[in-house]
UniProtKB/TrEMBL annotation:
Coiled coil: none annotated. This is Cytochrome-c oxidase. One of its GO terms (molecular function) is electron transfer activity. InterPro entries: Cyt_c-like_dom_sf, Cyt_c_oxidase_monohaem-su/FixO. Pfam families: FixO. It comes from the Bacteria. It comes from Schlesneria paludicola.
Amino acid sequence: MFEKKSGILLIAGVGFFAFAFLSNAVVPILMYRHLPEKSVAEVVNGNVRYQFEDLAQRYPAAFERAYGTPPADPRQAHEWYNRKCAEALELGRKIYVGEGCWHCHSQFVRPVSNEDRRWGPVSKSWEYQNALQRPVLFGTRRVGPDLSREGGRRSNDWHAVHFFQPEMLSPRSPMPRYPWLFDGAPDRPNARGLALMTYVQWLGSWLESYPYYEDYAPTPIKAVAATE
């Protein structure tokens, strides 16, 4: 058996599988075993809070219907926003999975082929040590771009228009429309639409070099206003 090509290929295949398992599973487990898994509430950070409060300002009526009114007291309001943001993240991930977004978008920047130049910093194991990454959505297809670093790259109104009618912003886009995330128009997202936008804006928000969208690209609303 070991003298035949098929035997050599079999041994090589098993060997590469074992090496991949050790390097991609066992080693990261040993390296990060001391890190506790964060809950959804613990992954709420200042960057995603900024985006969540931005949703409240852009779509006040929709936001109030979905989450209510924050307390007048600043300290209580801070805790309220954190709690509601965590709820939105949890629901947003469920919608992301349920709508099949993970079929066309990966969430893992690989250390090959200049991926960091296309999508951002290569993904690290510690980024997936939280409840919103269970199970992880690494993905294998990239019909659309990798979303590991999507948070903050575009404004909430950009995402609203993109979810409502993708081809308005990305001509010839194969992405389907999601009108059921809105109450009739892209400026009227419902609770599910707000939650999905919050989740997308969370992706990569934990990085120190988080790129706020004002410094990345103008929003569609600003672009339209500039032509008037």
